[in-house]
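Key result, reporting period 2: structure in, sequence out.
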């Protein structure tokens, strides 16, 4: 492709105008050369590149490069290895000369070998233009214009705080070379589409303000289904419109998140923060492209980095609890259990006997379970966690977070001279990020952006629900306890869907509020201390028993994938964070003034508006795989869509085979909820598309015949519900019969066991399958007699009598015989409810003493009625007299 001993010139992936212009400038300093453009997601730059004569500029295609023909690699506008993967074959080849032209600060990912040309300019193009001036290189006006475009782009037309005198001097020299300012204005112009306007509005609406180092920092979010070009320009527009000192614009685009950061303040270095997110930039302008994180996780990561910038000198010594409570390895499990119970600890370091040397960790759950299994006398060293990560007192917050959050270790022993001098726990970190209001969101949710839903509550809820919410708020104010209505109730309130299943969460003593509520309502409280919850049971205005759940704000975390949650005290934010999806992580504060302040930390309102199901963190489905089923259920119920990133996380959970670890009863609970939906088949089809059904059990795959049967079953259930009979079928049982259609008995039994049916229900449904097997043969015989016109309705009723309503609906859906389907329909709606028109009193008046003959005559009358042989009371009385006479004649002859 190129001559020997050539120089390859390139910039970072996803180039901007400055990087591109710097490549064009560098080509004048190296000869022979080849330019490699790594591509850009900025539409303006794409248009500029497309308009160039690439051969005249010596641009090459990556796929056609002869890597062995280059002896030098020149990188412009970056030194980070992770941003130049497109030239990895050359970078890794021994003997290649590497030169880098950059204006960004040092980072941990910087290439360590080679020559670095570093400048403190707003634009790296300005730095290279200085070199062109010193070498007396003359430029064509078009070249000067393109280089000027880079300087204008990276200095914000000389308005960014990072702009230096050298940038102005470089632009002035380019102007003397023929730079066309009007053309730069045209090339840099951004054409905003309706999608850009929509994203800009989302950024404005979601903007939340924080005070860090006495500087206002704004985080704003927007979500798009696909990549949106010129997102960086939207950030520029926003900071100009609102005059924010520091802005982080966070854009969710399909399965990635784009962060664009701008700063006008020396107090906040946005380059360092974006570098920690895997991106780059300088103190005043930076960006990052992130995969495998949710919006909330990116936001929290930015806040964590901001916190660390605000407290650069704070170390583990200041975070730790000291002295550390621990236990020696030769102590017993019972002693450890009692120690942790006494101090209220979730885990303790284990010490070598007679020392403060840590050689393990023991958590309270392990100790408690071992004691429950009669192992209280066993030694701690037999059950402790042996591999423990420890840190020195000089460690910073990032180090602690990596172990506790990343490594999922319950606590970190802080060690000095091999002695444990303190510990930092998971709760300590929660306190850092959730409770240190002086350092984190001080200006969050300014009054102009607060939303109150008191009017929605007034307009959309029945009086009983409104009164209950107002009472809870009043009691909360009296007790000094923040009280919230949370979860699905709030979601459905915003969607204007009926839902009076109210759950309350209290920041503080939830049980105290529950007792006060019970006293006001004349009810009682059932407490669950282990889970910090209680249930208030009371009689409503109609005298029916009602209940309301009251929980203490808590954070649930999972000891291992698919485990049941462990509970800790926390704030409302942490309580909401444990929930499954953003649309369910909403709360309404009831003790607030005015009443009904909406609490939305995670963009639930936005996702309801955009009709999307989004998880709160990337481990959501790993921690609880049943959320995969729940995501589908909510998606189909509300006609939403599972976000691209959430769908990818579902598939990741399936690839990890996490469904195998789910206990059957949890699956059964989720399937029951699905079967109670208005359109269960839509849920099952979607689960089948995502691979969830086959991951749970291969037998569940929706082959065409099974899918068709399930559709008919759904139609049958809808038909039956419209009849408004008192008896209500168990929907799950009907659908489970459909899901097992065509499976042998043994496979069906295995399937129902996997789906967690309780033993009695499993036996019930398997018995019904066997009953239907027997009934099918009798039905065939009845149909043959019917074709011969000897079959009677009463005979059909006798055949069907043993079957449950669920089995009858299943048979009705399964049969392809339209006449039989009609007969089954008549049986379900009419024949099985028929009674004889005469009664025992009529038989008594005929002089028949009570006895077995009564039931025989009444059955005969009913059969005759069903078969059209004795319609009406008189005909059935006549039949009764006839049967009576026949009985008397038989008795006479016997005697």
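The corresponding designed sequence is given below.
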């Amino acid at each position: 492709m190129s001559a020997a001993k050539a120089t390859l010139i390139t910039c970072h992936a996803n180039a901007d105008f400055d990087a591109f212009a710097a490549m064009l400038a560098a080509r004048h300093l190296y000869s022979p050369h080849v330019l490699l453009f790594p591509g850009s997601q900025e539409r303006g730059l794409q248009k500029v590149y497309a308009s160039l004569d690439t051969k005249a500029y010596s641009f090459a295609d990556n796929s056609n490069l002869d890597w062995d023909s280059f002896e030098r690699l020149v990188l412009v506008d970056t030194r980070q290895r992770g941003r130049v993967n497109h030239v990895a074959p050359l970078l890794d080849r021994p003997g290649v000369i590497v030169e880098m032209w950059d204006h960004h600060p040092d980072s941990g990912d910087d290439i360590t070998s080679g020559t670095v040309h570093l400048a403190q300019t707003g634009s790296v193009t300005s730095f290279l233009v200085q070199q062109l001036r010193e070498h007396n290189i003359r430029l064509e006006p078009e070249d000067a214009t393109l280089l000027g475009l880079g300087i204008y782009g990276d200095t914000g037309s000389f308005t960014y705080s990072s702009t230096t005198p050298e940038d102005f001097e470089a632009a002035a020299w380019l102007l003397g070379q023929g730079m066309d300012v009007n053309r730069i204005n045209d090339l840099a112009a951004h054409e905003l589409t309706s999608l850009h306007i929509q994203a800009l509005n989302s950024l404005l609406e979601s903007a939340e303000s924080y005070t860090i180092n006495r500087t206002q920092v704004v985080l704003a979010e927007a979500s798009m289904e696909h990549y949106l070009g010129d997102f960086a320009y939207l950030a520029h527009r926003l900071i100009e419109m609102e005059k924010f000192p520091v802005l982080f614009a966070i854009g969710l685009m399909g399965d990635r998140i784009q962060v664009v950061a701008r700063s006008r303040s020396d107090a906040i270095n946005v380059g360092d923060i974006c570098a920690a997110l895997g991106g780059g930039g300088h103190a005043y302008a930076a960006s990052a492209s992130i995969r495998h994180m949710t919006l909330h996780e990116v936001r929290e990561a930015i806040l964590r980095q901001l916190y660390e910038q605000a407290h650069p000198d704070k170390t583990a010594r200041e975070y730790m609890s000291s002295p550390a409570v621990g236990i020696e390895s030769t102590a017993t499990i019972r002693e450890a259990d009692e120690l942790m119970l006494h101090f209220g600890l979730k885990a303790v370091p284990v010490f070598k006997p007679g020392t403060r040397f840590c050689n393990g960790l023991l958590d309270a759950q392990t100790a408690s379970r071992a004691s429950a299994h009669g192992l209280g006398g066993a030694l701690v060293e037999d059950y402790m966690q042996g591999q423990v990560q420890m840190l020195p007192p000089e460690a910073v917050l990032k180090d602690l977070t990596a172990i506790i959050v990343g490594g999922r270790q319950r606590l970190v022993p802080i060690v000095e001279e091999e002695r444990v001098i303190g510990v930092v726990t998971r709760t300590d970190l929660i306190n850092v990020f959730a409770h240190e209001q002086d350092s984190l969101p001080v200006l969050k949710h300014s009054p102009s952006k607060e939303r109150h839903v008191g009017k929605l509550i007034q307009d959309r809820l029945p009086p009983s629900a409104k009164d209950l919410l107002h009472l809870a708020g009043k009691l909360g104010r009296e007790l000094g306890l923040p009280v919230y209505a949370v979860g699905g109730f709030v979601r459905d309130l915003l969607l204007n869907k009926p839902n009076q299943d109210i759950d309350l969460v209290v920041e503080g003593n939830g049980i105290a509020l529950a007792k006060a509520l019970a006293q006001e309502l004349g009810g009682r409280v059932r407490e669950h201390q282990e889970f910090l919850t209680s249930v208030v049971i009371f009689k409503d205005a109609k005298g029916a028993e009602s209940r309301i759940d009251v929980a203490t704000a808590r954070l649930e975390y999972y000891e291992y994938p698919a485990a049941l949650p462990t509970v800790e005290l926390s704030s409302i934010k942490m309580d909401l964070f444990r929930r499954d999806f953003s649309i369910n992580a909403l709360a309404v504060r009831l003790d607030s003034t005015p009443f009904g302040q909406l609490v939305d930390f995670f963009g639930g309102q936005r996702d309801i508006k955009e009709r999307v199901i989004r998880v709160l963190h990337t481990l959501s489905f790993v921690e609880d795989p049943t959320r995969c089923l729940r995501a589908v259920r909510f998606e189909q119920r509300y006609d939403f869509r599972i976000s691209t990133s959430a769908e990818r996380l579902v598939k990741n959970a399936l690839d990890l085979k996490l469904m195998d670890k789910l206990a059957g009863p949890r699956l059964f609970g989720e399937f029951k909820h699905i079967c109670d939906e208005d359109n269960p088949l839509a849920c099952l089809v979607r689960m089948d598309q995502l691979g969830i059904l086959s991951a749970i059990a291969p037998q569940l795959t929706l082959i065409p015949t099974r899918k068709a049967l399930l559709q008919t079953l759904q139609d049958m259930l809808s038909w039956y519900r419209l009849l408004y009979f008192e008896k209500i079928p168990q929907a799950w049982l009907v659908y489970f019969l459909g899901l097992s259609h065509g499976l042998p008995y043994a496979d069906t039994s295995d399937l129902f066991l996997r789906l967690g049916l309780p033993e009695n229900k499993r036996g019930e449904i398997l018995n019904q399958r066997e009953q239907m097997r027997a009934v099918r043969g009798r039905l065939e015989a009845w149909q043959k007699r019917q074709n011969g016109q000897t079959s009677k309705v009463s005979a059909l009723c006798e055949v069907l009598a043993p079957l449950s309503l669920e089995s009858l609906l299943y048979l009705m859906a399964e049969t392809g015989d339209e006449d039989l389907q009609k007969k089954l329909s008549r049986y379900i709606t009419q024949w099985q409810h028929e009674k004889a028109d005469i009664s025992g009193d009529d038989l008594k008046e005929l002089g028949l003493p009570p006895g077995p003959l009564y039931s025989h005559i009444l059955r005969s009358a009913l059969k005759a009625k069903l078969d059209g042989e004795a319609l009406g009371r008189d005909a059935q009385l006549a039949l009764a007299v006839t049967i009576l006479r026949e009985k008397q004649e038989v008795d006479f002859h016997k005697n």
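Residues 170 and 431 are 50 Å apart (CA to CA). Residues 434-448, 555-569 have pLDDT under 50 and may be disordered. This case is discussed further under Risks and Mitigation.
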